[in-house]
Amino acid sequence: MKRQIKKWTLRLTATGLLLAGLLLIIVLNPILTYANKTTYKNYTVFHNKILDPSLLTKLDQATELLKASEFYNPKLRLDICLNDGSKYPTLIRVLRGQAFAWGFYDKVVLQGTANYKVNNVELNGYKWNLTQLLAHEMTHCLQFDKLGFWKSKPIANIPNWKWEGYAEYISRQNADQKDLSKNIERLIVTGKENWEIKFADNSITPREYYDYWTLIQYCMDIKKMTYKQILTDTTSEQIVRQEMMSWFSKQE
User: Fold this and answer.
1) Which of 36, 97, 118, 138 has the smallest CB count inside 10 Å?
2) Are residues 140 and 174 in the same domain?
3) Do residues 230 and 220 make contact, with C-beta atoms less than 8 angstroms apart?
4) Tens of pLDDT, residue by residue, the chain (252 residues)
């Protein structure tokens, strides 16, 4: 009986490893689930339908935003996986959950419905600015590229405010998003009962991400810290927020 149990355990383990290996191959090779791919500068766009050239303009705009990051690598090549009929975005949603998009390793996977001409991605009735969404997820790829697998989330225990806040900081560079005092005011006026913060173009960001963004903006714009210094600094999120609000009260 023990021999039989051991035999079945080995079979199940081998089957599990095989399935995990196949899944990893698919995740790392989007072309297995897409009909087409288009290479544009440092980007490989995977798509099923005819590619809308407006997307290429958005990729250029997102690249310009990325140049503000100290982690920017002009040689980094990224895969952009569209949600236009392929099973790939669905697979990523099963593995990681529902989101407007996911950025990991060298991949950005759109999960919402993209409208390239009006520059947004819609999910559950909410819209995220497409250019800024691309830049946000690409920033996660820059973080992985610079820090490496073991020092990046989810392996490394990096607080969410440092990980997601930096992606928001790099991507939110519109004229009405530069002033920290006004950003904090918008956060206060919106109220805690709303899960999202709205911008002038009717796009949104989750309130949680917006809060993280203001903390990073305070550290980088007011305290003049680099992102590397923020990552190694041991000051708690609560203390940084208290410092920021104390600074804000003095501005008024």
Assistant:
1) 97
2) no
3) yes
4) 566 666 666 666 656 656 667 777 888 899 999 999 999 999 999 999 999 999 999 999 999 999 999 999 999 999 999 999 999 999 999 999 999 999 999 999 999 999 999 999 999 999 999 999 999 999 999 999 999 999 999 899 999 999 999 999 999 999 999 999 999 999 999 888 889 999 999 999 999 999 999 999 999 999 999 999 999 999 999 999 999 999 999 986
User: Do β-strands 78-81 and 43-47 pair in parallel, antiparallel, or remain unpaired?
Assistant: parallel
- Do 186 and 137 belong to one domain? no
The residues, ordered by sequence, that sit 6+ positions from 153 with a Cβ below 8 Å of its Cβ are 143, 163
- Domain identity same for 148 and 104: yes
Q: Could you give the number of structural domains in the chain?
A: 2
Judgement on whether residues 145 and 228 belong to the same structural domain of the protein: no
Instruction: Report yes or no on 95 lying in a domain.
Output: yes
Looking at the structure, tell me whether residues 164 and 246 fall in a common domain.
yes
Kind and range of the H or E element at 205?
strand 204-206
